[in-house]
Design goal:
The protein is α+β, with helices and mostly antiparallel strands and about 325 residues long. The protein has nine helices and 17 strands. Helix content is about 25%, strand content about 30%. The strands form four sheets. A seven-stranded mixed beta sheet has the order 1-2-4-5-6-9-10. The N terminus is likely disordered.
Length: about 325
């Protein structure tokens, strides 16, 4: 039987041994190797009767002070430094899966193998689904970080899915004239678009929708042109709750909220992109609905509110169980 005295003596002996390393197995102090990776990147939430799964395609370091336009680089760098995003900022690439209970609809696909090993994670299977189960894929637009995950090599990843794209977006990238194909900036992007969407065209799996039209029943769209000609937000509503999948209305979740007129080098029409962003911010703030940004910090879902400097991004509060 252990008395209070023996307990204190044993405790003192253990403490002394711990302090000197005497009397304890060497393995007790072995250090575990560092892993360097995160858990599989997906996050679920309810929207009325629907389930939304945010899917991380990964993150990539980008020199955002050089990518942002319409403001002096030094001023941008100071702004980002004040918000701990100086140098090469870590930028998320997000896609979203909507489970209506009847259909599985993927909004954007990530990068596939087009943009290096830091991206292309998809995480669909990690989240509990298989590509063959996806019924429909809707693209907000056809840039490689949204359409690259459509294919693996020359094969369709989503073999049972119909691909839905805004009509003017599809025509801009898939029916480009020789002059556009020869352009140093647009040319490689057109080639990527043809590679990613071509297998779906060949399989007669591509369907287009009109500006502000419905990609498929229960899913609406709003034309958000500028970043690309047919760039569209995808609108989903259930039981009075609403989310708009924004695509690339904003890149990051700080600078453009204070300065909606700041554009990015990837915008096809920078003036139109700035005007679209100002309208989208105002509508989201006034409507108080959820938005999902492809390049907001994962999971990229939140609200927009007005503040003294224009707008503010308010991320969704994490919930372990919805």
């Amino acid at each position: 039987m252990q008395t209070r005295r023996s307990f204190l003596i044993n405790t003192a002996v253990f403490g002394a041994a711990a302090g000197t390393g005497i009397g304890l197995p060497a393995t007790s102090f072995a250090k575990a190797p560092m892993v360097g990776t995160q858990a599989a990147g997906f996050y679920r939430m309810k929207l009325g009767d629907y389930e939304i799964t945010a899917l991380s395609d990964g993150t990539v370091k980008l020199p955002m002070s050089k990518i942002y336009q319409s403001m002096a680089e030094s001023e941008i760098d100071t702004y980002l430094t004040d918000r701990f995003q100086s140098g090469a900022a870590e930028v998320s690439v997000n896609a979203y899966l909507v489970n209506t209970g009847e259909r599985l609809v993927l909004v954007d696909t990530g990068t596939g193998d087009l943009m290096g090993p830091a991206l292309g994670k998809s995480n669909i299977e990690a989240s509990g689904y298989k590509p063959a189960e996806i019924d429909d894929v809707i693209l907000t637009h056809i840039h490689a970080d949204h359409s690259g995950g459509l294919v693996s090599g020359d094969d369709r990843v989503y073999k049972n899915a119909i691909l839905h794209v805004n009509r003017r977006e599809a025509e801009f990238w898939l029916k480009a004239k020789a002059k556009a194909k020869a352009d140093q900036v647009l040319g490689p992007q057109i080639a990527q678009a043809e590679r990613c969407l071509g297998p779906y065209v060949d399989a007669e799996k591509l369907e287009t929708f009109d500006d502000n039209g419905a990609p498929l029943p229960g899913f609406a769209s709003v034309l958000l042109a500028g970043h690309t000609p047919g760039h569209s937000g995808i609108i989903v509503e259930s039981k009075g709750e609403k989310i708009v999948f924004w695509g690339d209305v904003a890149h990051g979740d700080v600078l453009q909220y204070d300065h909606p007129d700041v554009t990015v080098a990837f915008d096809v029409d920078q003036n139109a992109a700035a005007a679209t962003r100002a309208t989208a911010f105002a509508e989201a703030a006034d409507g108080r609905y959820l938005v999902a940004g492809a390049h907001h910090a994962f999971p990229g879902i939140g609200h927009v509110r007005r503040d003294e400097n224009n707008y503010d991004w308010v991320p969704l509060v994490y919930r372990a169980v919805y």
